[in-house]
Amino acid sequence: MAVVVLASVAVLGLGVPPGAFAGEAAGEPAGAAANRAALAGAAGAAGPGEAAGTLRSAPVVPGTYAFAEDAGSVEGTVSAADAEELVPGRTYRSTLPARGKVYYRLELDATTNIYASATAVPPAGRTASVIDGVKVTVEDGEGRACDVDTASFGAAGSPHPVAAWAMREISPRRSLCQEAGAYYVAVERVDPDGKGSSPDPWEMELTAMTEPPLERATATTAPREWNSAPPRPVAGQPERRPGGAGFARATPVGHGVWRDDIRPGQTLFYKVPVDWGRQLHATAELGGSGSGGSGYVAAALDLDLYNPARGPVADAGLGYDGTQKAESLAPLPPVAYVNRHAVSRQVGAMRFAGSYYLVAHLSAGVADDFGDGPVPLTLRVGLSGTAQDGPGYAGESVPSGVFSVTGEDRRAASEGAAAGDDTAFRALAVGGIGMGSALLVGLGAWTLVARRRGSLP
User: Fold this and answer.
1) What is the torsional sign of CA 312, 315, 321, 324?
2) I need a surface site. Which of 4, 43, 178, 236 has the fewest CB within 10 A?
3) What is the tens place of the pLDDT at every residue in 163-188?
4) Could you read off the pLDDT of 143-161 as tens digits, one per residue?
5) Domain spanning 225-419, CATH architecture
6) CA distance 99 to 444
7) What are the DSSP E strand ranges found in 370-418?
8) pLDDT tens column, 74-133
9) Do the Cβ atoms of 253 and 382 come closer than 8 Å?
10) 207 φ, ψ to 5°?
């Protein structure tokens, strides 16, 4: 009730006591404070390029990660025999030790594809080995690898959230991992003993998603031809769209030009609804620092693209000397079910529709030459091609609809509010106004009564 009252006061412009939404409560999960702060700022004034009433995100503190608020706690085990189960459709929070694998269990049927992803969140403000990161493997009951993937921090060696995925895929081309039964997700560090690697455990966010089989068989070869010519970056006036602090709080964007500020060590998350048959293009720009500093950071900005299952697709690095710089992701094929048959893992990752994530990280090393102030970041996001019907699934994915794009998703991308979240925000705002008005009416009546009493002999 206290939170609602404070939100009401904030909506009415009466001010909020310092720290009211700062997450002082003991044991609050990292990122929850940031998410609640976003609620407090939801009714803030519109910024440049924003329509009145636009819901705005709270500023993101560099180095923090907003874990999913509904994430359950799960403990990885050193032995697969003791592994706790990951239920598809749920998000979990766990810990990754500096050395050794930790295991989690999956209970699978013989018809469904499963995609497991681990987002590693290293401690902020530490150095990192350039090849360190997270490695994810899905294994069968006999310890044989069904699939494996790694993600590293890149040339900058700047620690930031990185995600890798692995799958159990039902396919006539495969002989292993086709039976029903217990499977295991093994997660480990890539280079814990590398120069500059953090000796501390890392926090971690885990997800598992299922994809149903098709109603009818389809082609078993990837498209041989698609438009691989680099397109011109999208032109137009940038619209300010603050980035989120995690996958669960990624800011929706669509075709257009989007603007925010990013600080050294900070990571911003955006999500783009990409339908079947559509092709995604993205360019990142860093503006002038304005700090008066000089120098050159060879790997200043890292732009990563992840698919709806949080699987890495492509990345681009950008050097920075304090002046305007730009870099684009390599051309990607249109989203198609048959992309999964491609030899290239990059093409194979464009296998389903849904929300694709653009994740921008500004190296902590930028502060050495240009200070720790914000640097202008512009994302030029292009969507080409005509949306097509899906492949015809014989069932529902888990979570439901994760591999599709809805009208609500498109509207959210246009307006900047997370699909399904704006209703809650607006309800809070309306409820807050109602409660605030009632509070003011009550206070006014109390004051009037007190004054009348004071005037009686």
Assistant:
1) negative
2) 236
3) 999 999 999 888 899 999 999 999 99
4) 999 999 999 998 878 999 9
5) Sandwich (2.60)
6) 63
7) 375-384
8) 999 999 999 999 999 999 999 999 999 999 999 999 999 999 999 999 987 667 888 999
9) no
10) -140, 155
pLDDT at 37 over 60: no
Are 324 and 315 in contact, with CB atoms under 8 Å apart?
Answer: no
SS3 category, 258: strand
Q: What mean pLDDT comes out for the span 437-451?
A: 41
The single-letter code of the amino acid at 378 is T
Instruction: Classify strands 279-286 and 251-252 as parallel, antiparallel or unpaired.
Output: unpaired
Tokens representing residue 138 in the block: 């899905």
Judged against a pLDDT cut of 50, whether residue 23 lies above it is answered with no
Joined together, the tokens standing for residue 280 give 């995604």
pLDDT exceeds cutoff 50 at 416: yes
Q: How far apart are CA 59 and CA 358, in angstroms?
A: 18
Tell me what percent of the residues of the chain surpass a pLDDT of 70: 77
259-282 pLDDT, tens digit per residue, is 999 999 999 999 999 999 999 999
Taking a C-beta distance cutoff of 8 angstroms, is the pair 391, 337 a contact? yes
User: Do residues 297 and 320 make contact, with C-beta atoms less than 8 angstroms apart?
Assistant: yes
Domain with CATH 2.60.120.380 in the chain: 72-211, 225-419
Q: Residue 374, preceding bond cis, omega within 30 degrees?
A: no
The burial of 413, by beta-carbon neighbours within 10 Å (0-12 exposed, 13-18 middle, 19 or more buried), is given as buried
Tokens standing for 240?
């300010």
Tokens 């990161």 correspond to 133
Nearest to 110 by CA among 50, 17, 25, 177: 177
Residue 302 DSSP symbol: E
What is the bridge-based pairing of β-strands 113-121 and 202-211? Answer: antiparallel
Maximum C-alpha span of the chain: 96
Please give the Cα distance from 176 to 141 (Å, whole number). Answer: 11
